[in-house]
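Researcher: Here's a chain I'd like modeled. Treat it as a single chain, no partners, no ligands.
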Amino acid sequence: MTPLPRARRFDWSNLGLRIASGFVLVPTALYATLGKHQHWVPAFQDRQEALPYLLMIAVAVALLSIEWGAMSAPGAPIRVSAAVTAAVLAAVFLAYETHKLSHYLLAWAVMAVGALASALVARGVAERPADAAYGVFYIGPAALCLVWLRATNQGVWWTLMLFACTWGADIGAFAVGSVLKGPKLWPKFSPNKTWSGFFGGLATAMLAGTAMASLPYFELSLWAAAFIGLSVGLATMAGDLWESALKRRFGVKDSGDIIPGHGGLLDRVDGLMFAVVVMAAARLANEIGWGH
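Model: Modeled as a single isolated chain. Structure tokens:
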């Protein structure tokens, strides 16, 4: 395992660049999620309306796969990236085509077959098959959960709450950790994160969840929203730390450089990839009666 350079303090000089990137990414995500209709409409009313959302997910899958191939298969990144992209998108398009539960289950099966195919591709180019297969299972579940979450009744609200809690956790952790500092959370893999930032991020995620549930038309109790915010906040932190551990394993500082001030797309959505799975589980529990 290649050692990484010693951790440095946060580079405040690129804070403006990071904020500018956020002003591009956030409206893009919101536009694709909301579509052209009023935000209280329960779900997509026609297939064409959902195309911007599907396109956003497809582009993200392709970019994440490229970054994963570059990190995990430096000897043949293009072939491994193409295999991972094809495996995940096959499952995503199948899930998008119809929102029946049977097709979602089939999409998971297709993803598993795609992971096996990706492993065979990696083996054929003398790269590690397990890393290629893991790339499919790392990226794929988040993409499928995003498709399913938005397609449910009041899916717009649930997807927006996902973004609010995830972004709240990131912003709260950064702000509180920068001000209070204190003991490190996991210095071996992420030297800049602190316990104060951890708890600050959780508190902000809970506030974001309850704020969303307090808006009109959202059928979710405040206590359930607070619990979901806490759970999503924990998942966001876990996803961030997990990606830090993966980068340490592959000996890279950033997953890429596509987003100015942030690094790669994986560096930006690592927490979201874990958080959306937790949010989808909460939505499924809500559909069977919890949290009303």
